[in-house]
Amino acid sequence: MFAYDATVAGRYPEVHAGVLHATGLQGGESSPKLLDEYRAEQRAVAGRLDSVSIAELAQIAAWRRVFSDFGAKPTQYRNAAEALLRRLSKHGDIPTINALVDIGNLVSIRYAMPVAVFDMGKVAAPITVKFATGDEGFTDLGSTETVQPDTGEVIFADADGGVCARRWCWRQSAGSVTGPDTTEALFVIEGHHDSVRQDIESALADLTSLLATHQPESEIESYVLSPSDHHAG
Q: Suppose 17 and one of 34, 173, 212, 225 were both cysteines; which one would form an S-S bond, judging by CB atoms 3.0 to 4.6 Å apart?
């Protein structure tokens, strides 16, 4: 259901991912209980950011190095976790989107790692992290225009060649996001820093707990991908 292309795995052998496949979901708005938990986490993280630079966090610094390596200027293209943390630091809050995205974002800011959430009813499995040829199609959120990624940038591509995310974990496509009708989703947590495996395992445990609490009808399978095992599901 999720894989790293061999060329990506070879170039970034330190990459780890937590992959969680959930079915039986309800993709509507967050409950008041979830929103309370989400806002409490935002306050806690904002407090920590008062005494540390986002760019100096090991998780963020590692992603910046990776972005630079494949040609995406990291101060122009922020990985998804850094974008959330910067929004939180600057504005004091992150708006609610829906239950599934809010759960993913809660885990993302807690661990300073990007968490992608894909509606598996809208994409063709498996999703593969690969280098773009430049011929693939991507439609940005809020747009109807299809554009092509830069040759050599890292993308998430589905089995039909559609781009689910550009510049690795910078921007997700309009066609892969979760919504009110989502019943099946794939959550992907990624990192490159030294303590990444431990952090991935902790983040997966938190994500599983949040889904069990706030999506009690869901069924969950999860995996940790190591440098020597680059596929799951």
A: 225
**Which sign does the torsion angle of CA 108, 95, 1, 127 carry?**
negative
Distance CA 29, CA 111 (A): 23
The number of helix segments (H) and strand segments (E) in the chain equals 6, 12
Check residue 142 and give its pLDDT.
86
- Asked if 59 and 189 touch (Cβ cutoff 8 Å), the reply is no
- Which pTM does this prediction carry? 0.96
Task: For the beta carbon of residue 44, count every other beta carbon within 10 angstroms.
Answer: 12
Cβ 160 vs Cβ 138: under 8 Å: no
pLDDT at 213 over 80: yes
Q: How far apart are CA 185 and CA 187, in angstroms?
A: 6
Q: Which of 85, 86, 64 is nearest to 75 (CA)?
A: 64
- pLDDT value of residue 113: 98
Nearest to 131 by CA among 19, 228, 34, 4: 4
Residue 29 DSSP code: P
Distance CA 198, CA 201 (A): 5
Per the document, the length of the chain is 233
H-type helices in 29-165, by residue range? Answer: 32-49, 58-69, 80-91, 99-111
Q: Which two tokens stand for residue 72?
A: 């995406």
- Terminal-residue alpha carbon distance, the chain: 5
β-bridge partners, 155: 130
Place of tokens 């052998």: 13
Tokens of 127: 């999703």
Place of tokens 């999506």: 215
